[in-house]
Design goal:
- By secondary structure, the chain is of the alpha+beta class.
- The longest helix has 11 residues.
- The chain is globular.
- It starts with 10 loop residues before the first strand and ends with a helix.
């Protein structure tokens, strides 16, 4: 196993949380409950087994639980998307809890463990975009037509983490990679297998870190 390492300059740029709120995205006056709208918070934030204190999920069956406790997205990818969409994006705009800088979350391995602040997190799943994500893009004043297809084609969804050790995190905390498993399935590779390359599912099913919920969908 490689020794613990910290990528040069790898750190948490922003810690983002948001409550469940009702927004006018559902049409016909019904509205939609969502917690995708997240904003940076100051000071240390406790990370428990189910996520960050002060952060909520409107649909915990799909967006929460111990295997989707913390979601990370790279600042570099946010800025790239801002350029491609012709607008601006700030930390939290993609609904991420941790906006990272100086490290590529999509190049990390499934089962990789990061020390973030005093918490120990393990990459175990990926984001699959939904209609609320498309609506959020439109709400930000960016072109949302075809957004889900563009996001899937990009193949850089950002990882979900489970919490192995509870702790606290603040903006500016270094990100230290404490463990890398001995396989080659990255976050981007997992996304590709789940969304397109069904013939490679046995590779994914062989991973110890794979959540049972994902495993059940792959064999279902």
């Amino acid at each position: 196993m490689p020794p613990p390492s910290s990528e040069t300059g790898a750190r948490v740029l922003s810690v983002n949380c948001g409550p469940v709120r009702k927004v006018a995205w559902g049409g016909r006056g019904r509205g939609t409950r969502t917690a995708i709208v997240k904003t940076p918070v100051l000071g240390p934030v406790h990370i428990g087994r189910l996520g960050l204190v002060g952060d909520d999920q409107a649909d915990p069956a799909h967006h929460g639980g111990p295997d989707k406790a913390v979601y990370a997205f790279a600042h570099e990818d946010l800025q790239r998307w801002a350029g491609e969409l012709g607008g601006s994006l700030v930390p939290g705009d993609f609904g991420e809890n941790l906006t990272t800088v100086g490290i590529d979350p999509n190049g990390a391995l499934v089962g990789e463990r990061w020390r973030v602040g005093t918490a120990l997190l393990e990459i175990c799943s990926i984001r699959t975009p939904c209609h609320k994500f498309r609506a959020r893009i439109g709400d930000l004043g960016l072109p949302s037509a075809g957004w889900l297809k563009r996001f899937v084609a990009d193949g850089r969804p950002g990882p979900y983490f489970r919490v192995l050790e509870e702790g606290s995190v603040s903006a500016g905390d270094p990100i230290v990679v404490e463990h890398r498993p001995d396989h080659l399935i990255t976050v981007s590779e997992m996304f590709l297998i789940v969304t397109a390359q069904r013939e490679r599912r046995p590779e994914l099913l062989a991973l110890d870190a794979l959540p049972e919920s994902v495993r059940a969908k792959l064999v279902g």
